[in-house]
Every structure is written in structure tokens, then in C-alpha cells.
């Protein structure tokens, strides 16, 4: 399901490429991260691309995020801080740079301020006209406000909120804000800063955002430590130009987006960077959302999203960390997606991984799609349909710049819509990908409009057969697409081995399936193979894919010999590939159906609108 993007957003698909930066010079790469290894076939582990290859793919999408020395927590006791003791609707101040009036505690000078106690209905306000740096140490503080933000940074060069070790701190705003006039609409978050904001330390901060957002910076928001528990009516964390998380333990429950950037000005789109930390995000909309690029190189991320799990309007680069998207509409979506490392598992009600520019592109695919291929008779080729006219909108389909690139890492997809979907092209050179795709014939485990070039790595994709595609003939690594006469039960094991008895695949898809595609570095052209059904394996399984162990007790389905880079297979043996699913793809200006291929004689391809 595509999002509506304006022409400006679509036009900056490759913006991040101009910011290519050597990862070895990026401070983010020095951050320690935790990555859990997944069960991966031993033969595949050696096929991951070299460090140089991954470097090239990553640097095209990654911006350099700089962390200043004051972004990290340091001991404040030797900095001659001003002490602020909150009590009811008043405060006692020991030091300079603070004014207190009617429950509002105003910080007017740069320096370090240590806040403790409870403010029943008031605000900590920062207004430093000389743009100095303010460090606000929360040392067991509770700040409540019934009509506006609990902490409001009106002006400062940077504000640093430090969470003192061993303390729990709380901020809470009202359900309704009172503004001085109808033209004023900010602050609008429990913690709101017009300038750069950093949160660090080892203590805990609880944010109760009853009006709108939890924590907002209209410039850059950085988190380098602390335990944050944010509950927000709308968005959890928001930075206009940047949100960067280096460390910390974040729990976010948001009615809107979990973490987002908002700057969509061409040439300066907001950027979201995660290089460490632990995340538990429940969101009504996207869990991670960027108006520009989005980069994940570390961390342990758990997501339950009402819309996309991870979404960016320009690009997504996943280069490390552990990502578990337990619920989403679309798991990962951006015009350009590069996965080079890490362990990613996702569940999606629609498409799993979607390289897409939005609904303007869908409109460009346009008109009525071609007729699906007619049912073949005993191996006779069905007929491809005629393409429909191109509708209004921008470049799309085979001519689109949308691209999914996989160079390494581990990716597991469980999708009700398309598994891997590109309104453009797909390239895979390394890594392990498991797709448990759709059970309905209106979607496919693999779905692309341009090409899918497979030159390395391991890919297995199971699902329905109506829209099934294999990788492209441009691939250099062989692949096999098996289509069964009828749907196979969920958990029904499929095993493939070569003529010498070496295992190519042992897989028990957790959902029913009628097509299965596999590409492995162990597959050869001009070699003999046997496909089995049922049986048992003593290997270890993850997402249905078995690693190691011994297979026995299966029933032979078919013997076959590969003769080309893509082998089309049925229970009767090798078949010839043919066009279907709306016929050949159109060139720009022609529109038309999609150019996917299906084996002969496996029935009509149900027609559907491109999702």
C-alpha cells in the first residue's frame, strides 16, 4: 500500500548519495552494538560480500552524525551548578541564572542546573539569548503542567538534559494547551525545544504527553544514554532536522509515529540515525519515520506498528543491529533500500519490504492492467496480456529509480502482501533472505517491475503461485522456481539435494504455499537435482529454514536438470518460462502490465492492481 508523496519528495530519491562518507571515519561506527546471529546455512555464511563491497553500498545512503563532547554524560558536581529545589508551586534556588515566578522556573544564562523535587503545576523554561549551552540535570524531579509543556526551551545554543544515576524523573503536560493567541501553536510537546536538544545519563525519564507529542526538537534531537519511557497521544520523539540515538533504553507508546523527523525541504530533509540502544515501540502510525534518510547500524529494536514499521521518504540503510517488527502494515518502505548487515525479522499485513516512491508512482503504472495469462494445457504456454495505458504521474515500473539492494545480513519476511516488492528493481549480492509470502493469488513472494539480479547470497521465497516471479535472467547465480499443482499445507517440508546427495534446501514454510523459489551459491547450471516433500530433519530451524542435521523420510516429487540460470519447475518436470500477470512491462510512456515470468501450464494469473 503506497503512501501519497508530493513531486518534491519523489524527486529526491537519491539525495543521500551526495553525502557519501567513508564509514571508517564515521564516529557512529565506533559505537558498541549487540547483534544476535540467526540460524544461517553454513554454505551461505561465506557468501556475504566483502567489507569493501558493503562499504560501497552503505556509504551511498549514510550521513555523518557528529556527537560533541558535551553530548556524553559527565559528572556535574565539579561544575559549580545552580541548585533548583521544586516544591509545590514554587522553587528554591541556590545559585544564579534563574528566575521564579508563578510556578515558572526560568533559566536565563548558560550553565549547569540541577533540578530536584516536585512542581505541581509549573514549567522549567530555558531562554538564553546569547545562545549558550544549558545543562539541565534531572536529579529526582517531577514536573507537571496542566496547560502547556512541562519543559520548554524557547532559546539556547543547545540544551542537554542529563538523567542522574539512580533517579526516576517525570514530566507531564495537560490534555489541553492554553496559548496567548490563535496564531500560536507551540510548544506542543511535554518537552519542547526550539533548538538542539540532547538527552544523556543513566537515570530514568518518564514522559506523559497528554496533549500531543512526547519530546520535540525543532532542530536536532540526540540521545546518548538514559532510560526513557514515553507515552504520547501523537508522536513519541520528534526532531525536525535530525533524530540520532547512540545509546539508551527507550520504551515508546505513541498514538502517531514512534520516532520521526519532519524536515521535508528539498536538499535538507530530516535524517534518523540509530547506532545503539534498546527500543520497544508501539505506534498507531509508523514506528520509525523519516522525511529524508534513515540509517540503522546497531541496537535492539522491537516494533509493533499500526502502519509501517520503518519508513523513509528518501532512503533506508540497514547496516547492523537486531530488528524485530512483530506487527506492521508494510514492514520496511522507502524509494531506495539497502540492507548490508544485521538481523531483521518482520511481519506485515501488506508488503514486507517495499521499494516504492508512493501512490503517485502507482498512478503512473496506470489504467487497466493487461489480461492475465490464460491457463496452459498440458505444458502449453498460456497467453500474456496486453498492457493498459499509462495513467498520470511520474516515472514508474521498470524505468523507476526505486531499488532494493541486499548485500549481506539476515532478513526474514512474513507478508500477507508481496514479500520483497520493488516498483523498480532488486539486486542481491549476499546475505540470507527468507520470505514466507502471501497465501492469496493477488500477491507474490517476489514482486518487481524492472529486474531482479541475483549474484550471491541465499534466497528462499514461498507463497501463492498466481503472481509468482523468479529472479531475472540477468542473474549470475542460478535459481529454481517450483510451482505445485495445488496448495501445500503450512509446515509441509520441502527438501532439495543435488545428484551427490548434498543438501541445497530443507524448508518447512509456516504458511500454506503453492510456489517456492530458491537461489543458492550451491546451485549449478547443468547439474541434476531431486526435490522431496515431507520427511524430517534433525537440523536447527529458524523461520522454517533448517541448518545442518540430516534429512530423511521424504517422498520424491521430481528429478530435474538445470539448463539455464533460472529453472522453471512443476511436478511434471522442467517447464519453459512464459510471460504472465498482465503481459510484458511497458516502456516509459506505454504503461501496461508487469513483466514477471511464470512457468507454463500452471493456470491463469489473477489480475490485481499494483499495491
Automatic annotation (TrEMBL):
Keywords: Signal. Residues 355-365 have a biased composition (Low complexity). Residues 348-401, 575-611 are annotated as: Disordered. Residues 1-22 form the signal peptide. It comes from the Bacteria. Pfam families: Cthe_2159. InterPro entries: Cthe_2159 (IPR025584). Residues 366-396, 580-598 have a biased composition (Gly residues). This is Carbohydrate-binding domain-containing protein. It comes from Paenibacillus marchantiophytorum.
Amino acid at each position: 500500500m503506497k503512501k501519497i508523496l508530493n513531486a518534491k519528495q519523489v524527486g529526491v530519491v537519491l539525495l543521500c548519495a551526495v553525502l557519501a562518507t567513508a564509514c571508517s571515519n564515521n564516529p557512529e561506527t565506533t559505537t558498541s552494538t549487540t547483534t544476535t546471529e540467526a540460524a544461517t546455512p553454513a554454505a551461505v555464511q561465506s557468501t556475504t560480500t566483502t567489507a569493501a563491497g558493503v562499504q560501497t553500498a552503505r556509504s551511498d545512503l549514510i550521513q555523518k552524525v557528529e556527537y560533541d563532547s558535551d553530548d556524553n554524560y559527565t559528572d556535574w558536581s565539579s561544575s559549580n551548578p545552580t541548585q533548583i529545589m521544586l516544591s509545590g508551586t514554587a522553587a528554591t534556588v541556590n545559585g544564579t541564572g534563574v528566575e521564579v515566578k508563578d510556578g515558572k522556573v526560568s533559566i536565563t544564562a548558560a550553565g549547569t542546573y540541577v533540578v530536584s523535587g516536585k512542581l505541581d503545576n509549573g514549567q522549567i523554561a530555558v531562554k538564553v539569548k546569547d545562545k549558550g549551552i544549558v545543562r539541565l540535570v534531572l536529579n529526582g524531579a517531577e514536573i507537571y503542567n496542566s496547560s502547556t509543556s512541562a519543559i520548554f526551551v524557547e532559546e539556547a545554543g543547545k540544551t542537554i538534559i542529563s538523567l542522574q544515576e539512580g533517579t526516576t524523573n517525570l514530566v507531564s503536560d495537560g490534555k489541553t494547551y492554553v496559548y496567548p493567541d490563535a496564531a500560536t501553536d507551540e510548544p506542543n510537546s511535554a518537552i519542547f525545544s526550539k533548538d538542539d536538544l540532547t538527552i544523556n545519563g543513566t537515570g530514568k525519564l518518564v514522559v506523559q504527553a497528554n496533549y500531543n507529542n512526547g519530546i520535540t526538537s525543532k532542530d536536532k534531537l540526540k540521545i546518548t544514554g538514559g532510560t526513557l519511557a514515553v507515552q504520547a497521544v501523537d508522536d513519541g520523539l520528534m526532531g525536525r532536522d535530525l533524530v540520532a540515538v547512540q545509546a539508551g533504553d527507550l520504551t515508546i507508546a505513541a498514538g502517531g509515529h514512534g520516532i520521526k523527523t519532519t524536515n521535508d525541504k528539498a536538499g535538507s530533509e530530516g535524517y534518523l540515525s540509530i547506532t545503539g540502544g534498546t527500543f520497544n515501540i508501539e505506534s498507531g502510525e509508523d514506528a520509525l519515520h523519516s522525511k529524508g534518510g534513515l540509517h540503522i547500524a546497531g541496537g535492539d529494536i522491537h516494533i509493533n506498528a499500526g502502519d509501517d514499521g520503518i519508513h523513509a521518504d528518501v532512503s533506508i540503510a540497514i547496516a547492523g543491529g537486531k530488528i524485530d517488527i512483530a506487527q506492521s502494515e508494510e514492514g520496511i518502505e522507502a524509494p531506495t533500500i539497502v540492507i548490508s548487515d544485521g538481523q531483521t525479522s518482520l511481519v506485515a499485513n501488506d508488503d514486507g519490504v517495499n521499494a516504492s516512491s508512493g501512490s503517485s508512482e502507482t498512478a503512473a503504472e496506470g489504467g487497466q492492467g493487461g489480461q492475465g495469462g490464460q491457463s496452459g494445457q498440458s505444458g502449453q504456454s498460456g497467453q500474456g496480456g496486453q498492457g493498459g495505458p499509462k495513467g498520470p504521474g511520474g516515472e514508474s515500473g521498470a524505468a523507476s529509480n526505486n531499488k532494493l539492494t541486499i548485500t549481506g545480513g539476515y532478513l526474514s519476511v512474513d507478508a500477507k502482501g508481496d514479500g520483497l516488492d520493488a516498483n523498480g528493481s532488486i539486486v542481491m549480492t549476499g546475505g540470507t533472505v527468507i520470505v514466507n509470502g502471501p497465501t492469496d493469488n493477488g500477491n507474490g513472494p517476489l514482486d518487481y517491475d524492472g529486474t531482479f539480479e541475483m549474484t550471491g547470497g541465499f534466497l528462499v521465497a514461498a507463497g501463492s503461485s498466481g503472481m509468482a516471479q523468479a529472479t531475472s535472467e540477468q542473474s549470475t547465480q542460478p535459481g529454481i522456481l517450483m510451482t505445485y499443482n495445488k496448495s501445500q499445507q503450512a509446515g509441509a517440508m520441502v527438501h532439495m539435494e543435488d545428484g551427490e546427495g548434498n543438501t541445497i534446501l530443507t524448508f518447512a514454510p509456516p504458511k500454506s504455499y503453492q510456489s517456492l523459489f530458491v537461489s543458492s551459491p550451491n546451485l549449478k547450471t547443468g547439474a541434476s537435482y531431486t526435490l522431496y516433500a515431507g520427511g524430517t530433519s534433525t537440523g536447527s530451524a529458524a523461520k522454517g529454514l533448517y541448518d545442518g542435521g540430516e534429512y530423511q523420510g521424504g517422498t520424491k516429487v521430481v528429478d530435474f536438470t538445470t539448463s539455464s540460470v533460472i529453472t522453471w519447475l512443476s511436478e511434471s518436470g522442467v517447464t519453459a518460462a512464459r510471460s504472465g500477470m498482465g503481459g510484458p512491462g511497458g516502456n516509459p510512456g506505454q504503461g501496461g502490465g508487469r513483466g514477471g515470468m511464470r512457468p507454463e501450464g500452471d493456470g491463469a494469473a489473477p489480475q490485481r492492481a499494483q499495491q
